[in-house]
Amino acid sequence: MNEQAAQAETTQVQHPLNVAIIGGAGHVGLPFGLALCDCGHTVTLVDLNQSQLDIIRAGQMPFSEINADQLLPRALETGRLHCSTDFADLSTQDVIIVTIGTPVDEYLDPSLRAFDQVMEEVFQHTRPGQLLIIRSTVFPGVTERLGRLIAERNLQIDVSYCPERIAQGRALLELTQLPQLVSGCTEQACQRAADFFSDFGQEIIELSTVEAELGKLFTNSYRYINFSISNQFYMLAQRYDADFDRIYHAITYRYPRMNGFARAGFAGGPCLLKDTMQLASFNHNLLTLGQTAMAVNEGLPGFIVERLKKDHDLTGLTVEILGMAFKGNCDDPRSSLSYKLRKVLTLECRRVLCTDPFINSPDFVSLETILDESDILILGACHDDYRGVQTTKPLIDVFGFTARQEP
């Protein structure tokens, strides 16, 4: 067993539980379910995405996740993993875990309608004594509101909020490495959630529900704002025709006070912008740092194209984007700024080509075609396949990835 697999191994629980995960076929729910199966619980993935569940039943992962290809077949063979589209299966469970996405609306305010609809369905199939754990990112105050609704209906279930903080693609590793934030609408709910997560051998940190909700939002908002600082500095360096990567190395080298300085690059994905906007909405849109960060990060693709136009007549050129996922070595295109870059380039260039080794799309071409037919290359995602790529054509690498030494 390799080191990563050993890190993901968990101990067998003494008192196995029946656990349902709503949104269980997704990037948060499925790895969590596999980890729970691996330590002895029986898990039912409840999800309305029938095609995704069919893939899982066949023993195939619908997306990339370290160690999941080994754990999924094992969970199915032991009979601990089940799939369902029927919320009625919730009534037989000891623990119900909610991992559905919580989007923002067209005004970038939290949209609670989908969450409320799911919870109404859950309420129809609960029984007294169950533990309900919310792992979705929610607007501050949602958990206490949920607790009041459950008390008013006398459902007699314990409600806790325990946010996930894993990096997509590394969930099975980090579930056994990172401390778990735990909260509950009552002391009993908090203690039950703490006992449940202790099976992973994690350190448990207890908070109030609103502290846990804000803790998750603070985490993603901090990262998003931090990326925007680096991206703003990158833009400033470009305006002075200075090499941002040389500056980055110089000011971070053996200088601990700059350890938190992120590299420049696209800050996309399904969480960072959304959660920053949720935090801004909670503060009546007074989180000006978050709104400024959005302007910087979302403006980076346009800035890149404007800089290219200074030195090239793009109207007759073919420009290629290397990597369309929202981050490196990932197969998830959700909210990837590479697509925004493609849209801007389409208005300016003769032709735009895209490639990605992790994403299948009829619109994409091979790396060989890219290197042969493009006039300019732009790095969109830091996939290992692109490390040290050899080309004599201009390569725009905001991340400083292609010239970086492999760790």
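Above is the first protein from milestone M3; the second protein from the same milestone is given next.
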Amino acid sequence: MEPLFMEAVFQEKIWGGNSLHSVFGFDLPSEKIGEDWAISAHPHGVSKVQNGPFKGQKLDQLWRDHQELFGNQEGDVFPLLVKILDAADDLSVQVHPDDNYALKHEGEFGKTECWYIIDAKPGAQIIYGHNAKTREELAQMIEAGRWDDLLHKVTVKKGDFFYVPSGTIHGIGKGIMILETQQSSDTTYRVYDYDRKDDQGNRRELHIRQSEDVTTVPARENTLNISENKQGSSAVITYLQTEFFNVYEWQVHGFLKLKKQAPYTLATVTEGYGKLIVEDKTYELTMGSSFILPNDVENWELQGEATLIASEPGKHL
């Protein structure tokens, strides 16, 4: 009965930078690291366990061979993926398919996701939604390159939270670091990439037909019903409870005691330092620490001054 601490998997990106080192202290393999796949069983980047009897084992292997850790959940694929993204430059404008489209055309889950803004430079913006009223108008605006008319931009700040269901046109802007919780999928359809070129002078592939197929038109308003449960100076903020995942912020100021409410729970430290206590055993937490609390962990306590983003499988699982 102990947490599974996961080893970071780093992804080099054209828009990446060095902030995962300067902010979190990660030892990065290059100066263009855009993503830390903190908890992942996706074949494009599988996390390994860092501690305990399963040390060195990959998460996809644990899901397959040790379902007791996850409450004997159905499904061949571990359903969630947690990332930290460092946008040193603008990401492409993109959209993700839902499960039906992705399974038919890509052979994997669709991609619904959400973002917690870890930090943002003053004035930093995301693209979140679009202004087209019909599919015909969407196609016309994309064809004409009327990006200022089409795309809806939102200025963000540290601590903001956004729900990004499949079908939502979106893009993370330069100068933003986020914690992303998503379905375990790596299917992205690029709508626009600012006409930039890679190191070989080539423009990255766009996916206009697929983007027009899967974009929700007109854009849907994703209203959040955020609630807070105080525990002394600490608190649990509930951001989302969806069919795919439930997402929380654990604000630790002194101590925070929590109980299991799902077959397993994922968590990442986005700020501060502290301790995790499970069954009288203490584990040090630093910025960027990511762990899974398996099914046999019924209660745990957090101590220190820290912010963690936690998630668990949604109700349909």
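Note on the second protein: Residues 4-214 form a domain with the Jelly Rolls fold (CATH 2.60.120.10).
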